[in-house]
């Protein structure tokens, strides 16, 4: 054991208000689990911002330490799968939601929540990718089973968000022609540099259409928003097109008919990164470390310290962050 106390970002509920501060905690305060991990890096995700602001749909009880991503080194292990000194990645499951998460120098988790850090990836790179990149990788993995680069354009919504930027970077690297949907008109150059061929403004794409089918334009899509954007994306697919759906920040409702699925053979693929099977999770991480490593993103991130989180969380909730924000727990 390196030490018995550590620093953590803790959110408290006080008289209906949610207040965060850096606190000193004890190792014994951590939940039970197979692995005690010294965290080197974490990253900021939208779920973390919701947890830090008191969203009870994400975190039921407080005080709580958010952080659904963590990369670090195993300090103690009760599992045959990992040993002391192993470098690991922990993302999703219940980490940072109702189990104290990666915005702390130490976490304790079940062994089946962890994957080995690929040899060709640093812990910093793992957190630049994080849950957002893993979700993008899962989406591309499933989409590529049905849609090939020669089939036509692939549309990506939420283009400047974490999942969006990784999806664009990976698809572009694999030879796909990518159309990016964004509400941030001033980010055109950024998206083009990531690999987007064309930019569509969100206000133009999310106009509600009563028609059951729209002009068939796209071979595939990755949607991070849900709602009208997903409706229109599905309606705009070419015959045998496919859409990977991984978010519902706009809405969880679908307002369409079965016609895109029956008359055009469109496939809707659901992506659940929180409980994605471990056998595929490790494969996607290995792809992200090598063939799919989003080179443009490895130098495009904002690195902060623990005490800088409140400001970044506020910006994220206002929709004013782009790309990835990683938290250096050793800085």
Walk me through the structure.
The protein has 10 helices and 15 strands. The chain has 331 residues and is an alpha/beta fold. Strands 3, 4, 5, 6, 7, 14 and 15 form a 7-stranded mixed β-sheet that branches. It has a 6-stranded parallel β-sheet with strand order 10-9-8-11-12-13, sandwiched between helices. Strands 1-2 form a two-stranded antiparallel ribbon. The model has no long low-confidence stretch (mean pLDDT 93).
What is the CA-CA span between the terminal residues? 20 Å
CATH topology of the largest domain: Quinone Oxidoreductase, Chain A, domain 1
Mind telling me the CATH superfamily name of the largest domain? Medium-chain alcohol dehydrogenases, catalytic domain
> What fraction of residues sit in β-strands?
25-35%
Which structural class matches the secondary elements?
alpha/beta
CATH architecture of the largest domain, by name, is Alpha-Beta Complex
| CATH structural class of the largest domain | Alpha Beta
**Domains counted in the coordinates: how many?**
2
What is the helical fraction, as a range of percent?
25-40%
Order of helices and strands: EEEHEEEEHEHEHEHEHEHEHHEHE
- Rg, please? 20 Å
Given the C-alpha coordinates, what overall shape results?
globular
Largest sheet: 7 strands, mixed
Number of strand elements: 15
